[in-house]
Amino acid sequence: MAKKTWKKPVNIVMDIGPCKYCKKDMVNTESFVAFYDKSKAHYECMKAEDAKQQQANNNHSQDI
Ligand SMILES: [Zn+2]
Fold first, then answer.
1. Would the pTM count as exceeding 0.70?
2. What is d(CA 51, CA 53) in angstroms, rounded to the nearest whole number?
């Protein structure tokens, strides 16, 4: 019988640094986004920030 080959685990958890928004360390198994300035953030945090920005824009346009 052939020697059992060592299978590399597919899900290697790697630390990819802190989230731009919540500052928590992220791992590559989470859903995250990378920005042009090489910073990274949780996908959820980015979505939340996006919603906040939209809200701010909406409020702003109502002021005018
Ligand atoms: Zn985050």
1. no
2. 5
Q: How many whole angstroms from 51 Cα to the centroid of ligand 1? A: 14
Query: Around ion ligand 1, which residues have CB less than 5 A away?
Result: 19, 21-22, 42, 45
Give residue 61 CA to ligand 1 midpoint distance, Å.
28
Question: What tens digit of pLDDT does each residue of 1-54 get?
Answer: 667 887 776 668 899 999 999 999 999 999 999 999 999 999 999 999 999 999
Strand (E) or helix (H) holding 42: strand 40-42
Rounded-to-integer distance, Cα 35 and Cα 10, Å? 25
Taken in order 47, 41, 61, 55, the sign of the CA dihedral is positive
By residue count, the chain amounts to 64
